[in-house]
Write a structure and sequence with these properties.
The strands form 2 sheets. A 7-stranded mixed beta sheet has the order 1-7-6-5-4-2-3, sandwiched between helices. Strands 8-9-12-11-10 form a 5-stranded mixed beta sheet. It folds into 2 domains: 253 residues, 3-Layer(aba) Sandwich (Aspartate Aminotransferase, domain 2), CATH 3.40.640.10; 133 residues, Aspartate Aminotransferase, domain 1 (Alpha-Beta Complex). With 393 residues, it is of the alpha/beta class. 38% of the residues lie in helices and 15% in strands. The longest helix has 20 residues. Helix 1 runs antiparallel to helix 3, helix 1 packs antiparallel against helix 10 and helix 13 crosses helix 15. The protein binds pyridoxal-5'-phosphate. Pyridoxal-5'-phosphate binds next to helix 4 and helix 5.
């Protein structure tokens, strides 16, 4: 399938990467094996030296994992993809593959919580430091650059307020200083946003979210040009946070329905956002697909649609917000996202509960804020579920 790039995303999502075995299986085979045998001592030597391509050991490669990597690379428009055990493993692998002691990162100040912890605690022990700057202000990124800056790290839209970082503008600033740009594309998936097309160097995924889409397995990936992913692969084959064959097989099945799911979930999120914005018990609604979003124009240029995640302020405070959550019978009370089942969370007491109240206020996360990651249920049923709590206010 060397002409793959000419296929459209829905075709790639179903077909890319598959190579059938001698048995002619229609569905992708699951190769549950940790090692591979060679037909001679000479072949073993060639495989180990890299002179001959082929599988050696599942920490290095596995045919099921390879199909997932090829399929995701095709969807992101990337030359190559390296799969990892989780999204966090993908971020750690990217940083350790490309940075060393003394190097510096400029990162968005509204990143996934574990990413903030990784950058601000564990990685600082290796002598790699990070400056966090405003997500939406390219001038702040430019001002934070030092001679030892090697990486810009961002995720867009942000969680939970759906602020948009301008990937093209930040890439232009970084490249003028020989700095790499890595974008965590978890919230949009390649169906809604392709960071490499906008100038980014590497795309990172938590496959745990929309790529699986059904809340079953953990996984991650790093996509980009081979000269950059090769370093990530070298780190993985030595350090070991590789994706398991079983998880890769589950994720392959997830990718097949990615476009249908993400488009339906995004359309439902827009309907829910419009309804919430008109609701008398609701204050501000944060959703890139709404014309009232301060960066609606940028979002429209950068993303195919607003995505499946929105946030809104319940009038009142924590008590009223918790009342809405506690009256949900359908929406799942969990911080997970990207699932077919709609989830609701109160960021101030969960995902953002460990930061100080002052920092939370500065970040714009107040006590009435709720975040919803829309799934595949009927919008009318989701509205009825939320209305039960809202009506009590
Ligand atoms: C969940 C998440 C991660 C971490 O992924 P895991 O698979 O849980 O390790 C990273 N970035 C974002 C934006 C996420 O939502």
């Amino acid at each position: 399938m060397s002409d793959l790039p000419t296929y459209r995303p829905e075709t790639l999502a179903v077909r890319a990467g598959q190579e059938r075995s001698q048995f002619g299986e229609h569905s992708e085979a699951l190769y549950l094996t940790s090692s591979f045998v060679f037909n001679s001592a000479a072949q073993a030597a060639r495989r180990f030296s890299g002179e001959e391509e082929g599988n050696v050991y599942a920490r290095f490669s596995n045919p099921t994992v390879s199909v997932f990597e090829e399929r995701l690379a095709a969807l992101e428009g990337a030359e190559d993809c390296v799969a990892t055990a989780s999204g966090m493993a993908a971020i750690m692998a990217t940083v350790l593959a490309h940075l060393k002691q003394g190097d510096h990162i400029v990162a968005s100040n509204s990143l996934f919580g574990a990413t903030v912890n990784l950058l601000s605690t564990i990685l600082t022990r290796t002598g790699i430091t990070t400056t966090f700057v405003s997500h939406t202000d390219p001038a702040a990124w430019a001002a934070a650059i030092r001679p030892e800056t090697r990486l810009f790290f961002l995720e867009t839209p942000s969680n939970p307020l759906t602020e948009i970082a301008d990937i093209a503008a930040l890439s232009a600033i970084a490249h003028a200083h020989d700095i790499l740009v890595a974008v965590d594309n978890c919230f949009c998936s390649p169906i809604l946003q392709r960071p490499l097309d906008l100038g980014a160097d590497l795309v990172i995924h938590s496959a745990t979210k929309f790529l699986d889409g059904q809340g079953r397995v953990l996984g991650g990936a790093v996509c980009g040009p081979r000269k950059l992913t090769e370093e990530v692969f070298k780190y993985l084959r030595t350090a070991g946070p590789t994706l398991s064959a079983f998880n890769a097989w589950v994720l392959l099945k997830g990718l097949e329905t990615l476009k249908l799911r993400v488009e339906a979930q995004s359309a439902a999120a827009l309907r829910l956002a419009v309804w919430l914005e008109a609701h008398p018990k609701v204050g501000r609604v944060f959703y890139p697909g709404l014309p009232s979003h301060p960066q609606h124009v940028l979002a429209k240029a950068q993303q195919k649609s607003g995505g499946a995640i929105l946030a809104f302020e319940v009038k009142g405070g924590r008590e009223q917000a918790w009342q809405v959550v506690d009256n949900c019978r359908l929406l799942s009370i969990t911080a997970n996202l990207g699932d077919t089942k709609t989830t609701i969370t109160h960021p101030a007491s969960t995902t953002h509960g460990r930061i100080t109240p002052e920092a939370r206020t500065a970040a714009g996360i107040n006590e009435g804020l709720l975040r919803i990651a829309v799934g595949l249920e009927a919008v009318e049923d989701l509205q009825a579920d939320l209305e039960r709590g809202l009506a009590l206010i």
